[in-house]
């Protein structure tokens, strides 16, 4: 085994996660979420690239390369075999607190329309803001940014900013509450939401309020992933309690700041009445103490059969890659598992490559970590 490779302790655990369907928690290493026998997992983690400063996004490019954003503004392509890093652009961003260059997504017709979409923090006369821009990728470099949507309230904390292209070919953008909790309940504001946009940034047809807003009452969603059937999942940072994984549906209210986690009254009786009055959507899983969930990916590849129909997400505070095995309908969590537990420090990004390998990016230079000399790093997990 090369020195950079090490076995992954992959054991399904009974867990402290509060599951939506507690009856489905009875799951051990012998069964997957679908009840089928699981062969033993023998996974290996290998550092494939080093020397980044706060990896924020990993995205598999149409060119077969691993695209990486760093919070300070650099966008690079990484050769997944050699680990060589080729910068392709530098976005002018305001790197402040948790803000900077964040999510990235590709135009669904990249071969003919080579647009790269990114979300980033910037400074305007009105203060700190976030926006989504797109840049054309030609000749190995990114062209000037074209604004897709701007003037999203921003802050040194809670900027959201994960991007995804849906199966409907619209652009989904997560936005944080920008340290203004009440704004999440304001349907006319772009902060504390999931947005659904055309590829040029207009409100997508069919949006529930005729605006860019798709869902509201979100606090700081930093992970987004679609299942093959189209179900949309997000991770959300809670306050000092109740981190969440949610299924996002149009027009739904996800509760923040009146509801933390489930409608269970844990923050007072007013939570119950708010839930009843607003048809609040509850998370499918939530965590207290918090774990700081960030990048999210859906796993459905034959390379690791026991991982099929799972959510994978990176955690910052918990410094662990979490796996949630989903029920057949994808709406509840059947079991959970911890991977790379505290081995690489803070984890921000996760990606499932077309060959079924899992890539994870660290965030140890974000001001809250303890970086190793080689941080930040990109790690690949796959069967030995
Ligand atoms: Ca919520
Ligand atoms: Ca609650």
Instruction: Write the H/E string, N to C.
Output: EEEEEEEEEEEEEEEEEEEEHEEEEEEEE
- The residue ranges in which pLDDT falls below 50 over 5 or more consecutive positions are 10-32
Largest sheet: 5 strands, antiparallel
Counting H and I runs of at least 4 residues, what is the number of helices? 1
* Shape designation: globular
Mean pLDDT: 92
Rg from alpha-carbon coordinates: 19 Å
Q: What's the arrangement of strands in the largest beta sheet?
A: 1-4-28-27-26
Range of helix content: under 10%
The CATH superfamily title:
TolB, C-terminal domain
What small ligands are held by the chains? calcium ion
- Decide which structural class fits the backbone: mainly beta
Total strands:
28
How many domains, as an integer? 1
Q: What is the name of the CATH topology?
A: Neuraminidase
Strand content bin: 35-45%
CATH architecture: 6 Propeller
Features:
about 375 residues; mainly beta; Neuraminidase; five-stranded antiparallel beta sheet; 1 helix; 28 strands; about 5% helix; globular; binds calcium ion
How do the helices and strands line up, and which of them pair or pack?
Elements: E1 5-7, E2 11-13, E3 18-19, E4 43-49, E5 55-60, E6 66-70, E7 74-78, E8 85-90, E9 101-106, E10 115-124, E11 127-138, E12 141-142, E13 146-153, E14 163-165, E15 171-174, E16 193-197, E17 213-216, E18 221-226, E19 232-236, E20 243-248, H1 269-278, E21 285-287, E22 293-299, E23 310-315, E24 321-326, E25 333-339, E26 347-352, E27 358-362, E28 378-383
Antiparallel strand pairs: 1-4, 2-25, 3-21, 4-28, 5-6, 6-7, 7-8, 9-10, 10-11, 11-12, 11-13, 14-15, 15-16, 16-17, 18-19, 19-20, 20-21, 22-23, 23-24, 24-25, 26-27, 27-28
Bound molecules: calcium ion (2 copies).
């Amino acid at each position: 085994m090369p020195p950079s490779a090490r076995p992954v302790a992959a054991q399904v655990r009974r867990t402290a996660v509060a599951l939506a369907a507690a009856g489905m928690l009875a799951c051990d290493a012998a069964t997957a979420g679908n009840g089928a026998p699981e062969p033993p997992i023998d996974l290996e983690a290998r550092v494939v690239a080093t020397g980044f400063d706060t990896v924020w996004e990993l995205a598999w490019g149409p060119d077969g390369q691993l695209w990486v954003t760093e919070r300070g503004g650099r966008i690079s392509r990484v050769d997944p075999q050699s680990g060589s890093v080729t910068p392709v652009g530098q976005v002018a961003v305001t790197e402040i607190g948790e803000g900077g260059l964040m999510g990235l997504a590709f135009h669904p017709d990249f071969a003919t329309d080579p647009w790269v979409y990114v979300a980033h923090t910037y400074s305007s006369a009105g203060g700190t803001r976030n926006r989504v821009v797109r840049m054309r990728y030609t000749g190995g470099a990114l062209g000037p940014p074209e604004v897709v949507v701007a003037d999203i309230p921003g802050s040194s904390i809670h900027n959201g900013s994960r991007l995804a292209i849906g199966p409907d070919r619209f652009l989904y953008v997560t936005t944080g509450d920008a340290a203004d909790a009440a704004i999440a309940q304001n349907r006319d504001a772009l902060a504390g939401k999931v947005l659904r946009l055309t590829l040029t940034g207009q409100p997508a047809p069919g949006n529930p309020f005729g605006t860019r807003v798709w869902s509201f009452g979100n606090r700081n969603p930093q992970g987004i992933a679609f299942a093959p059937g189209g179900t949309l999942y997000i991770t959300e940072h809670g306050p000092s309690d109740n981190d969440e994984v949610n299924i996002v549906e149009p027009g739904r209210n996800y509760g923040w700041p009146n509801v933390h986690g489930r409608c269970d009254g844990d923050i007072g009786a007013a939570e119950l009445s708010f839930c009843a009055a607003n048809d609040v959507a509850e998370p499918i899983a939530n965590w207290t103490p918090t774990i700081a969930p960030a990048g999210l990916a859906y796993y459905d590849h034959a390379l690791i059969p026991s991982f099929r129909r799972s959510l994978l997400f990176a955690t910052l505070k918990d410094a662990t890659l979490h796996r949630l095995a989903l029920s057949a309908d994808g709406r509840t969590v059947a079991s959970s598992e911890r991977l790379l537990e505290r081995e690489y420090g803070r984890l921000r990004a996760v990606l499932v490559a077309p060959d079924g390998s899992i890539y994870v990016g660290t965030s140890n230079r974000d001001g809250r970590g303890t970086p190793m000399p080689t941080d930040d790093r990109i790690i690949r997990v796959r069967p030995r």
